[in-house]
Amino acid sequence: MTGGFEQAAVHFLHSYGYLALFVLLALETSMILHFIPSEVIVTVAAATLATDTTQLVLVIAVSTLGATAGSLMLYAFARYGGRRFLDRHPRFFGLNAKRRARLESWFQRPAGESLVFF
Among residues of the chain, what percentage have pLDDT more than 70? Predict the structure, then answer.
């Protein structure tokens, strides 16, 4: 981890412990802090916070809760504001009218034929 932001995240994790782990994973999973992989966050947290088996279980539990909270935040954003945000800021996603029409028709197909890779 050579970047300044990654070092700040590790320092945040060292300073605030389990709360920092929860916050970092929630932000990463909700795509707000998507440039630090959750695998790195959990690995650093396990190496830093887990000195015995009980604490490792706590790291796993807090990681699970943080990732779930982030997923719920992303779902809520997409469910309640996603289309409005997309309509107002299409260039943020690199969409023009033709591409958007193609994507919308693609999502109208049966789900069995659709597979999305990120």
Answer: 88
Measured CA to CA, the distance from residue 99 to residue 91 in angstroms comes to 11
Q: Report the largest interatomic distance among the alpha carbons of the chain, rounded to a whole angstrom.
A: 56
Reduce the secondary structure of 24-67 to three states and give it as a string.
HHHHHHCCCCCCCCHHHHHHHHHHHHCCCHHHHHHHHHHHHHHH
Amino acid 1: pLDDT: 45
Cα gap 3→8, rounded to integer Å: 9
Task: Return the H-helix or E-strand segment holding 23.
Answer: helix 18-29
pTM of the predicted protein model? 0.69
List, as one string, the DSSP characters of 55-102. HHHHHHHHHHHHHHHHHHHHHHHHHHHHHHHHHH-GGGGT--HHHHHH
